[in-house]
């Protein structure tokens, strides 16, 4: 069994997807569709803009989705479609890419939703008030205990359970800084603040969750062709109403990536294809379950190799 997974923020790089667009008309059409949906030339920013501008949350989110769906369209052009997968999943914003790939959301609606999501997440907390930190070398239970101890009346939550030795905490800056020090005392190999513009996936994102509830209420969501393994549930969902609710919960909830990969492996998944920019998810997957083979599908060469692996 196979799963297709889609990367989240942090995977962005200037020039991502350009080779796909040059090699596959169907991939180029995705970038054109996203530009039209947003009423701006996002592709120019992706391919030739400053990385500082691309990394802005409001730009990075639709840009990463566009690159993922372009890779998906290129894969389809090589004869491997979404139904080659038994599950789809995405890391944070990648969940939207997964839903677009599985036909639950249109590409245009997904681009608009991610622009709203990125802007709302950025505006939910004033710059400098929140922070995120990666705690390396602690298991999830220990990292969660660190976050609770560090809170001291402020917000500090385990935001991303990425793999057995990497948990990201999010919340008020002072609380996250305390978590870094406590984590080191508890034996973390490393604990470091992340270069992010807002404290994602914690209670401070509640205003953004409200915005997304309104935005999602006005968008048609179909049943995905392939079940989605949802971030906040770490289990498969198909029902559009449930998906809509989980996408709202996801803004303030933890990304349960370690459990999601474990769930897919337990269902019999032995191969996972990372569709889009970067290789971050493949690295996490290898640390979660070495028995699961990974493939990166973000370049024309990666597309051809993945199609060959799928089509046998």
Core attributes:
14 helices, globular, single chain, 312 residues, alpha/beta, four-stranded antiparallel β-sheet, four-stranded parallel β-sheet
Describe the structure in your own words.
With 312 residues, the protein is an alpha/beta fold. The chain is built from 14 helices and 10 strands. A 4-stranded parallel beta sheet has the order 2-1-9-10, sandwiched between helices. The longest helix is centred in the first third of the chain and has 21 residues. It is globular, with a radius of gyration of 18 Å. The two termini are 13 Å apart. The mean pLDDT is 96.
Concise summary:
The protein has 312 residues and is of the alpha/beta class.
Helix content, binned percent: 40-55%
Sketch the topology as an H/E string, one letter per element.
EHHHHHEHHEHEEHEHEEHHEHEH
C-alpha geometry: globular
Largest sheet: 4 strands, parallel
Number of helices: 14
Mean pLDDT: 96
Which residues form runs of ≥5 with pLDDT under 50? none
Distance between the termini: 13 Å
Strand order of the largest sheet: 2-1-9-10
Strand percentage: 15-25%
Structural classification: alpha/beta
Radius of gyration: 18 Å
Topology:
Elements: E1 2-6, H1 18-23, H2 25-38, H3 42-48, H4 51-55, H5 57-77, E2 87-90, H6 94-101, H7 107-124, E3 130-136, H8 140-151, E4 156-163, E5 166-172, H9 173-185, E6 190-193, H10 206-217, E7 228-229, E8 236-237, H11 240-252, H12 257-266, E9 271-275, H13 280-288, E10 293-297, H14 300-311
Parallel strand pairs: 1-2, 1-9, 9-10
Antiparallel strand pairs: 3-5, 3-6, 4-5, 7-8
Helix pairs in contact: 2-5, 2-7, 5-6, 5-7, 5-14, 7-10, 8-9, 10-11
């Amino acid at each position: 069994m196979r799963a297709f997974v889609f990367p989240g923020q942090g995977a962005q790089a200037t020039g991502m997807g350009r080779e796909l667009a040059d090699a596959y008309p169907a991939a180029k059409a995705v970038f054109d569709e996203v530009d039209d949906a947003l009423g701006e030339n996002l592709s120019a920013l992706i391919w030739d803009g400053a990385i500082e501008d691309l990394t802005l949350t409001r730009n990075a989110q639709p840009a990463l989705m566009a690159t993922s769906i372009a890779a998906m369209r290129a894969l389809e052009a090589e004869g491997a479609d979404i139904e080659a997968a038994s599950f789809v999943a995405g890391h944070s914003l990648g969940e939207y890419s997964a839903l677009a790939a599985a036909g639950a959301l249109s590409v245009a609606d997904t681009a608009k939703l991610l622009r709203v999501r990125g802007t709302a997440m950025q505006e939910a907390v004033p710059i400098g008030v929140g922070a995120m930190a990666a705690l390396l070398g602690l298991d999830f239970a220990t990292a969660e205990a660190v976050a609770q101890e560090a809170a001291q009346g402020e917000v500090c939550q385990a935001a991303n359970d990425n793999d057995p030795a990497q948990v990201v905490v999010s919340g008020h800056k002072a609380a996250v800084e305390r978590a870094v020090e406590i984590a080191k005392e508890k034996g973390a190999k490393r604990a470091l603040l992340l270069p992010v513009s807002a404290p994602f996936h914690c209670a401070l994102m509640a205003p953004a969750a409200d915005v997304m509830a309104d935005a999602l209420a006005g968008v048609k969501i179909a049943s995905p062709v392939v079940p989605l393994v949802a971030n906040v549930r770490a289990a498969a969902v198909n029902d559009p109403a449930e998906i809509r609710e989980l996408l709202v919960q996801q803004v303030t909830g933890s990304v349960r990536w370690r459990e999601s990969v474990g769930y897919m492996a337990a269902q019999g998944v032995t191969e996972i294809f990372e569709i889009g920019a970067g290789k971050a998810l493949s690295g996490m997957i290898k640390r979660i379950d070495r028995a699961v083979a990974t493939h990166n599908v973000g370049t024309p060469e990666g597309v051809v190799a993945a199609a060959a692996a799928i089509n046998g």
